[in-house]
Amino acid sequence: MPRVPAHFAECAIGMLQGGMRTADVARAINCNARTVRRLRQHYRETGQTADCLRSGRPRVTTPAQDRYIRTSYLRDRYRMATITARVTPGTHNPSINAQTVHNRLREVGLRACRPVVRQVLTRHHRQQRRLWAQTHRRWTRQDWQKVLFTDVLWFCLTRGDGRICVYCQRNERYTEACTLERNQFGGGVSVMVWGVVSQDHWTELVVIAGNLNAVHYKEDILLPHVVPFLQAHPEMTLQHDNATSHTVRSVCDFLQGRNVSVLPWPAKSLDLNPIVYVWDLFDRRVRATAIPPRNVRELAGALGNISQQELANLVQSMRRRCTAVLNAAGGHTRYRLLLLI
C-alpha cells in the first residue's frame, strides 16, 4: 500500500466512518481510490492506520564483519575506508564499499575529522613533562601569581590558520570568487612580537626587528623590559622556554648576574604556557578587523589588549594543566597549542 501521511490516513478513516464514499475521500485527500480501499482494509484488520514495519534494505555486513571494521579502526585511526572495504573477511558478499565502512563506523560513534596537530614528543620529553608537572602541581594560586609568562609570536596576515572555509557550488572551485591568493614563501604584512603576562601584570607588546637571537633577546627585551620590571617586583619569577636564544651561556650569566629567578621549563611544552591563549586571541582579533592593517605599525596596534579577569583565569588554570599532563602520562593535553613560531 502506498504511504499516506498519518494525519491524512486518520482523516480518511473518519470520513469513511462518517458515511462518505471512497471516491469522495480519495478526492479529498488527493490520492487514488484504491489506496483508500486498502487503507480501510488495513484498519479493519489491525485497528490502526500506521503502516506495518518494513524490512528495508538488507544489511550487507555480518555481525562478525561489523566487529572487524570497528576493531580495525580502534587499532589504526588513519586507516583508509577503501582498504578496509577490500580486506574485510567474508567474500560471500562483495558489495562492501567505503560508504558501508563509514556507515558501520558512524554506528559506533567513529566519524572522520581533521587530526589535531601537536609537536613530536619523545620518551624523554614525556618524562620531563611528567616530572615537571609532579613538582608544580601542588603550587598554590599565590605561587603562580609570582610567575611572569613570556613568549614570542610571528603575526602574518597572509598565513593560513586552518580556519578559512569557502562555500562554492558545483564546478565553482577554481573560479576567482572561490580562490584564495597567497604567497608561497610568506610575504605580506608581518611582525614578530614579544609579550609577558601574569595574573596582575600585562606589559605592552615589544616589536622585534629581524630574528630573535641571543644578542637581541638580551639587549632589546631583557635589559630594557624584564630586568627593570623584576627589580621593581623582586618576588616575581621569569618563565621562558628552552629556545637557543634563552638558554645560551651569555643570557644565563646575564640573568644570574642580576639575580633574576628563572622557572625551569620542560621542552616542547607550549600547551603549559597560558600566554599561548593570548596569542590565539590576538590572532583572531587581527583577522576580524574590517580594514586589514597595511604596515607593521598598524598591525602591532591592531593586536589590542586583554582584560585582567582573563589573565587571572589563565594563570589559575596552571594547576589544571599540570593535572592534565599527569593524566596523559606526560603526553599531549587538550589545551590549545599553536605551531606558529
TrEMBL record:
Residues 190-289 form the Tc1-like transposase DDE domain. SUPFAM superfamilies: Homeodomain-like. One of its GO terms (biological process) is DNA integration. InterPro entries: Homeodomain-like_sf, RNaseH_sf, Tc1-like_DDE_dom, Transposase_5, Transposase_Tc1-like. It holds the Pfam family DDE_3. One of its GO terms (molecular function) is DNA binding. It comes from the Eukaryota. Residues 67-137 form the Transposase Tc1-like domain. This is Transposase Tc1-like domain-containing protein. It comes from Oncorhynchus mykiss (Rainbow trout). The lineage of its organism: Eukaryota, Metazoa, Chordata, Craniata, Vertebrata.
